[in-house]
Design brief:
mainly alpha, 70% helix, 107 residues
């Protein structure tokens, strides 16, 4: 099963994630656990929906329901895409201005 293989790999990176999640939010469904795990990976909504086999609109509704059910969980929406765009713009600008790793090491 793909989910079990994914879960095993995920636990190698974030040990105890699913146990802690279950301890904090015991009534989470397996679908909600998958959504939270994929959300932690900070991948795009389109990729996440594709991995779950649902539409992007269904994904947004699922996130909304989860945020409404557990507001303290703090699930992020798509705001981080703007942040990534900002970081990428800065990185590209630094590269275009001749920034190198050597320039950062001035000791």
């Amino acid at each position: 099963d793909d989910w079990l293989a994914f879960k095993k790999l995920f636990e190698k990176v974030w040990p105890g994630f699913f146990i802690n999640l279950q301890n904090q939010y015991g009534e989470l469904t397996p679908a909600e656990q998958r959504l939270i795990a994929l959300n932690k990976l900070a991948i795009s909504s389109k990729e996440m929906a594709n991995m779950l086999g649902i539409s992007v609109d269904s994904l947004r509704k699922s996130r909304y329901r989860l945020r409404k059910k557990y507001p303290e969980m703090g699930l992020m929406g798509d705001w981080w895409l703007t942040e990534i765009d900002t970081w990428m713009t800065r990185i590209i600008a630094a590269y275009n201005n001749g920034y190198t790793d050597d320039a950062a090491n001035t000791d």
